Amino acid sequence: AFTPRVFSGIKPSGGLTLGNYLGAIKRFVDMQGGEFETIYCVVDMHAITVWQSPEDLRHATREVAAGYLAAGIDPDKSTLFNQSRVSAHAELGWLFNCVARVGWMNRMTQFKDKAGKNAENVSLGLYAYPSLMAADILLYHATHVPVGEDQKQHVELTRDIANKFNHDYKVDFFPECTPVIEGPAMRVMNLRDGTKKMSKSGESDMERVNMTDDADTIAKKFKKAKTDPEPLPEEMEGLANRPEARNLVNIYAGLANMTGEEVLAEYGGQGWGFFKPALAELAVERLAPISTEMARLMNDPAEIDRILAKGAEKAKKIADPILDKTFEIMGF
Ligand code: ADP
Ligand code: NA
Questions:
Q1: Which residues take part in binding ATP (predicted)?
Q2: Cα(319) to centroid of ligand 1, in Å?
Q3: Which end of the chain is more exposed for a tag (fewer CB within 10 A), N or C?
Q4: Which residues, in sequence order, are bridge partners of residue 80?
């Protein structure tokens, strides 16, 4: 039996959004200190699958670490580190490049979305990235991987890699990991167009809420969010063809630790003039203290680097023996 262990990561490319918070970081905090051993990573080697200037990469790496810390990841309760400092990630990633099949990679929808019509001219790393992600997870024999909806296919690929490795080498070495995708806000949409994922790279700053936004900015963005003229329905089914409305209800639910149904039990029948200010107030209450703390942490980059370096030492204690054993199984 494998130790119940959580691994997850966030790429330091651009800033953190409310999508990263509700889909990932908030849930990482919730899983901390319970039945699981928790390992959280700033996956800096994934960031360079698309161009990052060295200054941007350094800044974003510290900012993601600050986001984790400000939201409540406690380096004494969790292992918090950046990927590049534990070289076993790159090594196991290469071994898995030789286990994973090209046909598997060709089925990854995120690659198709990100590469678009430019697929001949993106980095080889962008194509192989799910195999490095499998290494990130399996290097710790992680059993549970909390992610947003968009990462589900990559966690399933991780299971395929683990199964093929175990089968090819006739071992029971890598566990089958489970994606943990639960709660109302696993796919936070942008505030201008409820059909597109909220992301770091969206065109307009008004369409996303950044984890670094101050109270006034957060409130303004929710008050200006696109909606429709109808009042809120009493039931979730009433939101089926109302993507903007559904998104705001889900965001409220995620921030308040409620279900969408519970939010509608409270606000069903109300108009936007009532619900939007309530949402803005809740978002400010939950997010503004985090952005204030992030700003404080970012004033002391040396302290962030020290926390990450200490976390890397802790991570290596688990990762290095698993890598060594993998090499041995393979005949090195
Ligand atoms: P991004 O997708 O923002 O480029 P990552 O790929 O590093 O960043 O994602 C980090 C985590 O945040 C993943 O678990 C991903 O599923 C989650 N996430 C990112 N955007 C959203 C979103 N809009 N809604 C829910 N979860 C999200
Ligand atoms: Na993503």
A1: 11-13, 19-20, 148-150, 188, 197-201
A2: 24
A3: N
A4: 40
Q: How many CB atoms lie within 10 A of CB 244?
A: 19
270 confidence band (pLDDT: 50, 70, 90): very high
The CATH classification number of 205-296 equals 1.10.240.10
* pLDDT digit string, tens, across residues 200-247: 877 789 999 999 999 999 999 999 999 999 999 999 999 999 999 999
Q: What pTM did the predictor assign?
A: 0.96
Cβ of 310 closer than 6 Å to ligand 1, yes or no, is no
CATH 1.10.240.10 in the chain is located at 205-296
Find all residues with CB under 8 Å of 40, minimum gap 6, and list them.
7, 8, 9, 28, 68, 73, 78, 79, 80
Provide, rounded to the nearest whole percent, the portion of the chain with pLDDT above 90: 94
Complex ipTM, two decimals? Answer: 0.95
Q: Which CATH superfamily is domain 5-178+301-330 in?
A: HUPs (3.40.50.620)
Asked if 180 and 146 count as a contact pair (C-beta separation under 8 A), the reply is yes
Q: Where, residue-wise, is CATH 3.40.50.620 in the chain?
A: 5-178+301-330
CA of 88 to the centre of ligand 1 (A): 24
26 is catalytic: no
Point out the ligand 1 atom lying closest to the alpha carbon of residue 46: 7
